[in-house]
Structures are given as structure tokens and as C-alpha cells.
């Protein structure tokens, strides 16, 4: 399945996202998509969100620099040929700031010289258009792992076994079916290894920046997650601080 170049974004939107039943998903990754073809950018973001990732979208380099200065991203999917501020300059700025953010650069040119130049200015990976969406997902996953402390592929705590790649959760050997946001919240809590995670941290990792910071979506999601995980409860509320497992 290939994503069309910006000359055919409507077709890209129709063909981009993988089937909802796809099991090879990951979460606990925040991504910024920077692409001036809006339909293509929105289609990429929709596909990544179906992988339980928190995704923000901008359509020019100046907006990208603004978002990078405000939010912490694990991965930036960066089109090279951007208006206002060129993608190369956005990449250079990320490197100058010493941020742990990884950059996956996209370009319509597949020339070796262009790939080499992109990597030399600080991109961590390079993907020419048109590209297969499955490859984009795999590269984003790989880069996302490089921004965090290495942990076992399968997380286990309090009788819960969570496999980020297969998007599977088991409680005492019994599979638990979770919605993408529930899965993302559970993974953030398990990766904290017993530390308290605030509602604000959960919003930052599991939702995008358009979420109202005063919403009760975290409380509602945790409540539903507790119910699905069953008895005895494993998610502890720490009054005034957040949640932990």
C-alpha cells in the first residue's frame, strides 16, 4: 500500500490508513506531522492515531518551529520542501536545541545525494515519496523507541502483561480488549514502573494538543480501564497527584 506524492493527495487519503483490525500497533509515542499538502498530512495523522499514537499536525515550517518550542515530541515526520521555513532549517533547529526528538524526513526526491544531505543536517531517518504506510509506521515506531529508556518488549506488572507491538493486554492470563486511548493510558502507567503519573502527563502522552486541559477525559478513561481490568483494582488514585500501578 503506497502513499501518493502530493500531486495526488485525495487518492492518498483514501488508501492511506491500515485496516482497523491491524494488530501491529504501538502507543506512548507523541508525533508531530509537518506536511504542506493538508489532505496528505491529515491522512497520515489519522493513520498514526489509529496506531494509538498522539499526533499533532501543522502545514508549514514556521508553525512546526512554534509547536516544537512548546511541546515535547518523540518523533517529527517532516516534509523537506515546506513553505515559510524550509524543512532543512526545522531539522537544524531541532539539532541545535539538543532535543531528544527524532526526525523522519519525507521528500518527493529519492536521489541518494538528497538522502545523504538530509541525514547530514541531522535527520535520523529518510523516507522518499511515494511510500508504503506500513513502512512509515515501522520507522516511526523504531524512532520512538530510541527516545525512551529501553524496556522489555512485553511489559509486566501486577498480573498485567502488555505487548505494545501486538497491542495485546492480558490480566492473569485472560485477554482484555481495550480501546486505543485505554491502551495508551495503561502503557504510560506501566512504563512508569510504579511512579505516579499525573493527569497532565497522561494527556500529553495519550492525547494531542487540541484536548481541553480541563476535560475529565483522563478520569473517565481510567475509570473505564479499571472496569475492564477487573478485580482486584490495580490502578491506584493518588489524591492531588495522579495515578499509578
From TrEMBL:
<keyword id="KW-0238">DNA-binding</keyword>
<dbReference type="Pfam" id="PF00486">
    <property type="entry name" value="Trans_reg_C"/>
</dbReference>
<feature type="domain" description="OmpR/PhoB-type">
    <location>
        <begin position="152"/>
        <end position="245"/>
    </location>
</feature>
<protein>
    <submittedName>
        <fullName>Response regulator transcription factor</fullName>
    </submittedName>
</protein>
<dbReference type="InterPro" id="IPR001867">
    <property type="entry name" value="OmpR/PhoB-type_DNA-bd"/>
</dbReference>
<feature type="modified residue" description="4-aspartylphosphate">
    <location>
        <position position="79"/>
    </location>
</feature>
<feature type="DNA-binding region" description="OmpR/PhoB-type">
    <location>
        <begin position="152"/>
        <end position="245"/>
    </location>
</feature>
<feature type="compositionally biased region" description="Low complexity">
    <location>
        <begin position="9"/>
        <end position="19"/>
    </location>
</feature>
<dbReference type="InterPro" id="IPR039420">
    <property type="entry name" value="WalR-like"/>
</dbReference>
<dbReference type="Pfam" id="PF00072">
    <property type="entry name" value="Response_reg"/>
</dbReference>
<keyword id="KW-0597">Phosphoprotein</keyword>
<dbReference type="InterPro" id="IPR036388">
    <property type="entry name" value="WH-like_DNA-bd_sf"/>
</dbReference>
<feature type="region of interest" description="Disordered">
    <location>
        <begin position="1"/>
        <end position="24"/>
    </location>
</feature>
<dbReference type="InterPro" id="IPR001789">
    <property type="entry name" value="Sig_transdc_resp-reg_receiver"/>
</dbReference>
<dbReference type="InterPro" id="IPR011006">
    <property type="entry name" value="CheY-like_superfamily"/>
</dbReference>
<feature type="domain" description="Response regulatory">
    <location>
        <begin position="30"/>
        <end position="144"/>
    </location>
</feature>
Amino acid at each position: 500500500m503506497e502513499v501518493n506524492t502530493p500531486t495526488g493527495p485525495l487518492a492518498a487519503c483514501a488508501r492511506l490508513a491500515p485496516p482497523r483490525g491491524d494488530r501491529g500497533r504501538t502507543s506512548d509515542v507523541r508525533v508531530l506531522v509537518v506536511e504542506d499538502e493538508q489532505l496528505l498530512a491529515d491522512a497520515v495523522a489519522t493513520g498514526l492515531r489509529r496506531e494509538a499514537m498522539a499526533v499533532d499536525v501543522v502545514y508549514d515550517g514556521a508553525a512546526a518551529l512554534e509547536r516544537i518550542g512548546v511541546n515535547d515530541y518523540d518523533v517529527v515526520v517532516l516534509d523537506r520542501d515546506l513553505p515559510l521555513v524550509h524543512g532543512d532549517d526545522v531539522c537544524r533547529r531541532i539539532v541545535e536545541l539538543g532535543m531528544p526528538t527524532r526526525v523522519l524526513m519525507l521528500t518527493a526526491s529519492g536521489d541518494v545525494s538528497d538522502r545523504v544531505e538530509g541525514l547530514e543536517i541531522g535527520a535520523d531517518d529518510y523516507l522518499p515519496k511515494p511510500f508504503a504506510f506500513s513502512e512509515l509506521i515501522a520507522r516511526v515506531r523504531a524512532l520512538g523507541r530510541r527516545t525512551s529508556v529501553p524496556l522489555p518488549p512485553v511489559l509486566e506488572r501486577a498480573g498485567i502483561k502488555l505487548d505494545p507491538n501486538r497491542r495485546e493486554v492480558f490480566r492473569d492470563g485472560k485477554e482484555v480488549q481495550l480501546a486505543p486511548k485505554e491502551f495508551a493510558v495503561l502503557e504510560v502507567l506501566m512504563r512508569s514502573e510504579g511512579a505516579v503519573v499525573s493527569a497532565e502527563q497522561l494527556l500529553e502522552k495519550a492525547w494531542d494538543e487540541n484536548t481541553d486541559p480541563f476535560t475529565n477525559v483522563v478520569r473517565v478513561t481510567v475509570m473505564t480501564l479499571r472496569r475492564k481490568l477487573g478485580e482486584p483494582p490495580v490502578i491506584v488514585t493518588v489524591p492531588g497527584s495522579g495515578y499509578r500501578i
